[in-house]
Amino acid sequence: MADIVSAIDAVTGCQQCGGPLGGSPSGDFCGPGCASAWAAEQVGTRPGDVVAAFPALAEAAREIAASLRSDAAGGQIVWRGDDE
Fold this sequence. Notes:
The chain is an all-alpha fold. Helix content is 56%, strand content 0%. Helix 3 (47-53) packs across helix 4. The chain starts with a helix and ends in a 12-residue tail after the last helix.
């Protein structure tokens, strides 16, 4: 049965773009971008909608990224609330 599924996947390719699966660990998508786009379509959103719907989450993500970059440069990560 697994051989049949593999043969079908090889013919259909990526479920989002139709491209070859190549060395993707997923049996359905050629990469994480297509997997994310497919998942977003299933719930009726686009990847950018999350940022628009949750601006505080987007800001927190930017702060965390900046802290991690600072830490990599020898700085110290300061979590919100630690500096009060």
